[in-house]
Amino acid sequence: MGKENIVIGLEVGTSKVCAVVGETKHDGTIRILGVGQAPSRGVRKGEIVDFETASKCVREALVDAEEKSDVMIGSVFLAITGGHMDAFNNRGAVNLPEDRDEICEEDFEDVQTSAREVSIPKDNMFVHSILQHYYVDGQDGVLNPIGMLGRRLEADFHIIHGVSNRIRNSVRCVKEVGPEVLDVVFSPLATAQVVLDQNQKALGALVVDMGGGTTDYVVYVDGAVKQSGSLPLGGDHITNDISLGLRIPMAKAEKIKVEEGSVVLGNCLPGETVTLKDETGFAGKEIEREMLHNIIHCRVRETFELLKRRLDTDNYLHFLGAGMMLTGGCSQLKGIQHLAEDVFGLPVRVTHAQTVSGLTSAFENPQFSTAIGLIKYAEATQPIRQRGFFSRLRQRIPFLGF
Amino acid sequence: MIDLQRHQLSAITPEFRIKVVGLGGAGCNALDRLVLDGVPGAELVAMNADAQALAGSVATQKIQLGRTTTRGLGAGGDPEIGYSAAEESLDEVRSTLSGAQMVFLCVGLGGGTGSGGARLIGSVAREHGALVVAFATMPFTFEGRRRMAQAEEALAALQSVSDVVICFDNDRMGDAVSPRAAIQEAFAAADHTISQSVRAIASLATQKGIIQIGFDELAMALRGASRGGSRCLFGSGEADGDNRAHEALERALKCPLMDKGKMLGDAQSVLVNVSGGTTMTLNEVQILMDEFNRHISDTTQILFGTSVDPKLGQKMSVTIISAIGVAPSAEAVRPIAHAQPAAMIPRAAEPEAEDPKERTADISYATTDPISLASPEAVAAALAANPLADDGTSNLSNVARIAAAKKAAREAKQEQMQFEPITRGRFEKSEPTIVDGQDLDVPTFLRRNLKIR
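^ inputs. structure came back:
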């Protein structure tokens, strides 16, 4: 029985490392064969701080995935994130040579190179250049200019860059364990591949992946990526706040956040308490529920407000016809949808990976959105990859443009 | 500063006379509001140079200032004219104010009658030995710099003749109402706030408390407000029902000048008076003060008073008064208004205090040592101890309490110096995330000063 095309998505997150094994089919659908995960250590705010420990966790997750899916893992797609990732929009332009007026593939490379002719910090490297729109001789709305006649080709790109050493560290960490890293992908882009469908991208949507260490976001307007980035704030901060505020250990704080956490204020009876169970299962410390909710509410609201301020700089929030999609572990907090609606003034949906088949329990969990997204991303880029003779960077352009 | 009058809880002694004067256009508007709201035991007098405006006032007593100077017109925004108008009618004013032990002077500064006449009226009231509490409204900034300068000059003059000046900033009043509210609503809200504070202070001064608040405390709480540019914080709330302590405080903090308690953190000293019907319990007072303490910083002095007023029935009422200065220096902390009370208080206290000597002694504590006032815990302890102490030992326990409070205040201050708690928990060793000067790894509730039990 031929498994058509096995792709492994690996996300080294702050709270967990997860490896999703998926099968991409010729008709574009993907099927999840298995999910391996391991609790993550040595990662803070989405970046590796303890190399050896993180490597061990990656190994655990990969072994787990191999066992569950019965697939040998030889190569992975790796998601990267962290507060150091930055992005901007820029336009590149090339004039066609005098003796030619038909636009051909070579011109794409030139236009992209010219779009990258901007200064980024010298420690940074380009991760993605995502095509937004083409212009031929100043005429916009061109979807595919190959074969068109023109004198001047321009293109808008969304360019994502990050600190190169940190990105290389993530790659090294995985390579140390064994598998080849086929490509690195900025997390929210991967997430958006499975959370949004083509229609929502065209209408305009904001995807917010609130994970353990970071809150990653990407804005699609008119089918193109307009803004993306990562806030180094996430579920870990909530847990830390709870732990400090209620003076309980991190592990208990995490447990109580997952089991009782809510961002809704004024919804509990005065004096209502949550009982913290000790190791033996007997009732331990009593915690005032309102306090717990208040701590979580403050942090989540602040995170959203910060995010809104970032998004407001480019004013795309008014063009999001499909609203906001909230995913990632923190999206499971009770009432977070309404808080997000309140802060952003957009219709908000808590969502998970769509348009996949296979292990239901895997893709219905918003914690796996990014790892599954990697598979979709790979599926979108792979047909070209198999042709094998283009440079890797060029291959991404036409396929991430949607 | 704390006197024990548990047996004598009657509200206003009949011979204690309060007069409320509304001076000038703004003052009369505020006074009209007061007439409608009612101030128990007070006589309300409207004074204005503008005969037409005066005729429209609903106050029972009216004095037209400067009949010949302005011929029934207003002072036209000129303090000089306002001054001479008030001077002309000085005899009439004098006879009206004679016999009052306390004079509240409501005045809008920046115009003619108010700015010019305030000092004269204040000093006349003083001549009669009354305590003068001025409620001054500063003009809107958009009214121009000239008017603001006039107002500030008048405010300084007013301070020299008043025991306490409570200053309201019109710009702030505008914030109190929604931007869509009609202009008359905005002004009505301002008048209402003044009216509320007049009534609250009148009852503070006249009620006998278990822990009494005197004028020294009031002056102390407002000492930040005595200069221009400062802000008066005032809030008062009443509530009944099971959760009355919580609700009363909440309502007090919702008052427009209170800014939801956000500014309280910056205040050096805050006056809090809690009064309630006979059913008020110590526990409720403690709950209320605990909650209140979350809004202030550790170094803030709390000038705490509590009283039982049978008229309140099942209700509890909280009054919060404070002021925030621009940059109070050690010297500026004792302006004229503050230096006076030590001399003035015994006179006012005579009808109410059993032992004026003891009171003066306490007051001298309050005025000479700015940190002698009790920390909340010490006051709560004092309140708890009060019913147990008998009258004979109260003097002794009073002194002991003050000493203890003093010590507590000092200790609290030291503690503050010793550690600056910046807690980052598990992010202690990671690279900080700084946005807008805030370290986002520090819990949000800590940065926002939310107290978590």
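Chain B is about 45% helix and 15% strand. Chain B has three domains: 18-206, 231-416, 423-453.
thumbs up if we can close this ticket
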